[in-house]
Amino acid sequence: MENLLEVNNLHVSFDTYGGEVKAVRGVDFSVKKGETLAIVGESGSGKSVTTKALMGLIPQPPGRIKEGEILFEGKDLAKMKDKELANIRGKDIAMIFQDPMTSLNPTMKVGNQIMEGLIKHQKKSKSEAKERALELLKLVGIPNPEERIKQYPHQFSGGMRQRVVIAIALACNPKLLLADEPTTALDVTIQAQILEVMKDIQKEMDSGIVFITHDLGVVANVADRVAVMYAGKIVEIGKVDDIFYNPKHPYTWGLLGSMPSLESTEDELYAIPGSPPDLLNPPKGDAFAPRSDHAMKIDFEQEPPMFKVTEDHYAATWLLHEHAPHTEPPKSVQARMKGMASGSSEGDRK
Amino acid sequence: MSTEKLLEIKNLKQHFKSGRKGVIKAVDGLNFDIYKGETFGLVGESGCGKSTTGRTIIRLYDATEGEVHFNGEDVHNVKNKEELKRFNREMQMIFQDPYASLNPRMKVEDIIAEGIDVHGLASNDQERKEIVVNLLETVGLNEDHANRYPHEFSGGQRQRLGIARALAVDPSFIIADEPISALDVSIQAQVVNLLKKLQDEKGLTYLFIAHDLSMVKYISDRIGVMYFGKMVELTDADELYKNPIHPYTKSLLSAIPLPDPNYERTRRRFNYDPADHDQSEEPEFREVRPGHWVLCTTKEMEQYQKDYPVT
């Protein structure tokens, strides 16, 4: 199938008084129709900046897209003028933001906020737009929409507000949905509902989703493919099963190991020592090397290329080089990989 | 873990006035004990009253009703200043937001030493500095950090400062209110490991408040589940995850996504509807299985005991 979105060698930098902060340092990925790509990583790994760049939402200055192309249905968004971009934004590509408390306009009725995009992009009349807004509210599971459409955001709870944000994003049947931590601010039960709504809608509209999160549980739930970001780069990318059951990069091991499973009884969690690097002066070689137990001499000198594991699984670590010593993931991660691959954790809990 | 009670909470209530007539029952009749040396996990969704419970126990709020006994003494009726000070030394708190809970205008040394100064634990500046450096090293920082300001630290480091501050007065009981929620995954594990290590070394008792259930399960010995100001289920951490009895606990557990794609593909979610309960009488907190307490009516209790027989 053809790629809906293709990002090639994307570099985003911010010019600050201290110098150039290289937030995204050469990122490649693609998203197909009906597919969900999850981008995981810690704060400061560049995952949000990447999605913002896709939408042309990087404030310029201080930010700028230094290099690379963002091909959406073959057209390069990075080179588009603001006006052209405005016609795509909210129509073909929509975004769901992290914080439902601040991404809605508090002085505007919820209905009008949903109708805004419809009137602008689809040239609908007010009454048509209102009808569609009601439909959308029903779709995302807001009870009695006729009443709700006339209310202001403060009259909604957090979960309901996020549904409104999703309704706005879906208003014009976007082909691509960018969701930046859409459930992080919500309780688990509400999170589960929102994820279900998003999946149902994806099935119905066959849209591609880029889902940003740091919660690996959510990733396992929604993703078809996963990209792991660290220090402005994708360090591992593959199908969801590849990443969880056959991870190759030490950073991915660290992420998986630092989350306790519900069955785990180990005395100590596997914690990644130290903290992420300063992107003002990104380290030479493998950016993760200073925090890695498996770092080799070459990691501090030369940046690892993307090694191919399988047709759609790649990882940037020298450990995959043919001359590298054979290295096993830490025990806690291995146990999880084994336990999970055999599916033993199913059925344990009712 | 001993069976000696460090903290007994009896019929604790915290009601807030809302508007002229309204009352919000944030905490509505809690009864539970915390044993010496254990970690008691308190979970529930936002607004269920778990943070209010922690804050009321440490007397950041005055309780509307109920008693908190610490080592056998009723600490909420202490009026005497000296005794109150003694109690404050025993009980400390680690807050959720490491950005908001440290005074940005104070140096790290003074932040950590505030408790030391209040309680007069250091006889001179030399000693004060020594204690602070010691504490910094305990939480994995070093002497150089003492002269810096909070903004110079990352989130994980700030949370370590919060922990050092709590430890400064040598408490026996620490309330940790969502101490890791604001941190990155890799940093969360560091802080949790630190809390566990300190518990082993100093014999601390924790009340660990959180909504991240997998982390709570990992760190806690026993867990209480709260729903709308009430405790609906209380038992050992393992038992709670293996045999959740109250339908709310079930719905909560079934909603957690786990980092396991195979499991996620088959996970079924329960919905909790309070209307499904037996309405014939007021539910009470009953021991359905040994050490496993559930808020239920007599009829429900019979049903639960049939469904979860003791083997």
Automatic annotation (TrEMBL), chain A:
Subcellular compartments: Cell membrane
Organism: Salimicrobium flavidum
Lineage start: Bacteria, Bacillati, Bacillota, Bacilli, Bacillales
Pfam families given in the database record: ABC_tran, oligo_HPY
Family the UniProt entry places it in: Belongs to the ABC transporter superfamily.
Keyword terms of this UniProt record: ATP-binding, Cell membrane, Membrane, Nucleotide-binding, Transport
Name the UniProt record assigns to this protein: Oligopeptide transport system ATP-binding protein
SUPFAM superfamilies tied to this protein: P-loop containing nucleoside triphosphate hydrolases (SSF52540)
Disordered: region residues: 325-350
Keyword match Nucleotide-binding: yes
One Gene Ontology term, aspect cellular component: plasma membrane
InterPro entries registered for this protein in UniProt: AAA+_ATPase, ABC_Ni/Peptide_Import, ABC_transporter-like_ATP-bd, ABC_transporter-like_CS, Oligopep_ABC_C, P-loop_NTPase
Occurrences of domain ABC transporter (ranges): 5-256
Nucleotide-binding in keyword set: yes
Molecular function terms, GO-annotated: ATP binding; ATP hydrolysis activity
Membrane-related topology note: Peripheral membrane protein
GO biological process: peptide transport
TrEMBL record, chain B:
SUPFAM superfamilies xref list: P-loop containing nucleoside triphosphate hydrolases (SSF52540)
GO MF annotation, one: ATP hydrolysis activity
Keywords: ATP-binding, Nucleotide-binding, Transport
One record GO biological process: peptide transport
Domain of life: Bacteria
Domain ABC transporter: 7-253
SMART domains tied to this protein: AAA
Signal sequence coordinates: none
Pfam families reported for this sequence: ABC_tran (PF00005), oligo_HPY (PF08352)
Membership in a protein family: Belongs to the ABC transporter superfamily.
Protein name in UniProt: Oligopeptide transport system ATP-binding protein
